[in-house]
Every structure is written in C-alpha cells, then in structure tokens.
C-alpha cells in the first residue's frame, strides 16, 4: 500500500514544483514575442501606425527612434531611462554631452498617448522605444525585423552620471567602441552592422573640425575633405549653429550599405569610420557588407535584436509609466 502511494506523492511533489516555478517565473519575468497579445492586442499596430504618421509629417523622427534605442539600451538597461526629463529628483540623461543633437523626444508622447487610450497603464515606454526603432527602420527602407521581443518595464530613475562613461564619444577609438558593445553581449560582426546606422546619421561640425583644421587628416579622401571644409568653414563652429555633414550623401535617409562603400573609399566623417574599414578585426565584415546589402540587413537585424534585449527590467521590476517623461 505504501509503495502504491509513492507515484502519487511524486506526482504531487512535481506539481508543487511546477506551481512554484510558475510563480517565480512570473515574478521575475522575461521578454517574449507578442507580450501584449492578451493585455493589449493592438499595441504593436498602434505604435507602427503612429511611427508611420510621424514619419510622413517629420521624416527625421525615424532616425531619432533608432538613436533612442542605442542611447537607452547602452546605458545600464533598455528601460526608457533616456526619456525621463529633469523633475521629481530625476536628472535627465538628455542633459549629457553624449546626447548632443538628439531630438524629437516630444513626439514619443504622441505614441504613448495613443497606446494609453487603447490600454491604460499597460504598455511600457521601454517597449515603445524598442518597437518605434523597429518600425522606424522600416520607414527608412531598412530590414523588417520580426524578432523584437516585448515585456520590458520602465526605470524609476535615470543614470546621468553613467552616460559619459557608457556611451562612446564621437571620436573614441574603435577598440573602445568594440569593448563597449562586447560588454553588453554584442559581437564584432553585429557591432560593425549596427554602426551602419550611421548611414542615416549626420555629425555636427563640432565633432569634425579636428580632422580638417589646422591641416586635413591625410586618411580622408582629398575631394571629400574639401566638401567637409565647405560644410564646416570654420575651425571653431558654434554648437548652436546648424552646421552638419551627413555620413551618406547618396541615400541619406535609407538604412543601406552605402555607409560601408563610403568608408572603404575614405569618405567617413569620424575617425572610427576610417578605423572600421582598415582594422583587421572589422575590415572583412566592412568589405562583405559593402558588397552585399542583404548580408548587411541580416546582420543589422541581428544586432538590433541583441541591443534591444540588453538587461531589461521585467516582471515586477520597475514600473509602467503613465507619461514617459516622468516617473509615476
């Protein structure tokens, strides 16, 4: 009789373990595909529609969404800390010099308000950052990235004091940039692909003039250097002046492999662009991406997926902000 009870006892024990695992799993949580399928089934479609509408009104918003993902996720966590404004004891990360040139934060509220109208207190600002980047890439004729997981939660604070350390400077060395990406689990090949986002980027003359004055950087293509000097006619440009140069003059609003073709021809804006094309750790990937846009898109998609999953807050961590600009 005692032996007959053993299978039942074992079954009851494993059932209890399964229940405890479920509780633990829910409490800690994890990202998953279509996280809002029950709580807010239209969430991703609403975000996509808003990104599209904003793009046709303000085309550069799509570029902003892509840059937001990088600046948010590299600093500690993909938790929308970037979106917090200075208030309630919070010092905004947007005050950092690393955030120079970032814009269109005000339009995030339009996306958030549309989602809140459908599903109050449900969809995180962190997921809006990730999904708007995904959909912005499509508007920029980049790859359609299917594998963006959701379920992130929002931070209850910012990390202004860490931004200068964690986000590379415009003119940091390639080794420094590779180290930054490696620290968050992104390999060299994916890093080279993510730097392809510079295809739709622009750089203020403040970050260029050291390559032009008092003498021209010999690694620059001479004709390209003259173009840059025309764009940046003074060695001491005002940060407030509208003095920019684009990385890609051929397809400036398209996420494509033109960036790699340019840097192989010594027509990159930043020192890291030249290093990327010449360093033996990265040059083979640059050459392959320059030759094959499909390969670039494949690796870019993989890189965005890895970036978007950097140390997210999930489960009962953090909060779901009502307004992305302020903690609740």
UniProtKB/TrEMBL annotation:
Statement: the UniProt record of this protein carries the keyword Glycoprotein: yes
Entry's cofactor comment: Binds 2 calcium ions per subunit. Binds 1 heme b (iron(II)-protoporphyrin IX) group per subunit.
Family annotation (InterPro entries): Haem_peroxidase (IPR002016), Haem_peroxidase_sf (IPR010255), Peroxidase_pln (IPR000823), Secretory_peroxidase (IPR033905)
Enzyme Commission number: 1.11.1.7
Sites annotated Transition state stabilizer: 67
Predominant cellular place of this UniProt entry's protein: secreted
Any Pfam family matching the protein: peroxidase
Biological-process GO terms, alphabetical: hydrogen peroxide catabolic process; response to oxidative stress; rhythmic process
Keywords of the record: Biological rhythms, Calcium, Disulfide bond, Glycoprotein, Heme, Hydrogen peroxide, Iron, Metal-binding, Oxidoreductase, Peroxidase, Secreted, Signal
Superkingdom of origin organism: Eukaryota
GO terms, molecular function: heme binding; lactoperoxidase activity; metal ion binding
Binding site for Ca(2+) 2: 248, 251, 256
The keyword Hydrolase is assigned to this record: no
Subcellular location field: Secreted
Cofactor(s) the protein requires to work: Ca(2+); heme b
Binding site for heme b: 198
Protein name per the record: Peroxidase
């Amino acid at each position: 009789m005692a032996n007959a009870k053993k299978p039942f006892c074992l079954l009851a024990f494993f059932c209890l373990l399964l229940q405890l695992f479920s509780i633990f799993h829910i409490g800690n949580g994890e990202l998953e595909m279509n996280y809002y399928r029950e709580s807010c089934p239209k969430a991703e479609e609403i975000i996509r529609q808003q990104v599209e509408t904003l793009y046709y009104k303000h085309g550069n918003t799509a570029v902003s969404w892509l840059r937001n993902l990088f600046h948010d996720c590299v600093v500690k966590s993909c938790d929308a800390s970037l979106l917090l404004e200075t208030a309630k004891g919070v010092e905004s990360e947007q005050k950092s010099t690393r955030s120079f040139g970032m814009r269109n934060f005000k339009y995030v509220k339009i996306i958030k308000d549309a989602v809140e109208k459908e599903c109050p207190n449900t969809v995180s600002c962190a997921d809006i950052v990730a999904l708007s980047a995904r959909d912005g890439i499509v508007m920029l004729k980049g790859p359609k990235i299917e594998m963006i997981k959701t379920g992130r939660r929002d931070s209850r604070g910012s990390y202004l004091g860490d931004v200068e350390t964690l986000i590379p400077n415009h003119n940091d060395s390639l080794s420094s940039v590779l180290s930054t990406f490696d620290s968050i689990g992104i390999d060299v090949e994916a890093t080279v692909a993510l730097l392809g986002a510079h295809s739709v980027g622009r750089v203020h003359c403040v970050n260029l003039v050291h390559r032009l004055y008092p003498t021209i950087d010999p690694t620059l293509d001479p004709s390209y250097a003259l173009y840059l000097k025309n764009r940046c006619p003074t060695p001491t440009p005002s940060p407030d002046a509208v003095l920019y140069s684009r990385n890609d003059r051929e397809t400036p609003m398209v996420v494509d492999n033109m960036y790699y073709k340019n840097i192989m021809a010594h027509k990159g804006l930043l020192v890291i662009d030249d290093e990327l094309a010449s360093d033996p750790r990265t040059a083979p990937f640059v050459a392959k991406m320059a030759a094959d846009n499909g390969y670039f898109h494949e690796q870019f998609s993989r890189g965005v997926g890895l970036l978007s999953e950097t140390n997210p807050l999930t489960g009962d961590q953090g909060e779901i902000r009502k307004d992305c600009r302020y903690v609740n």
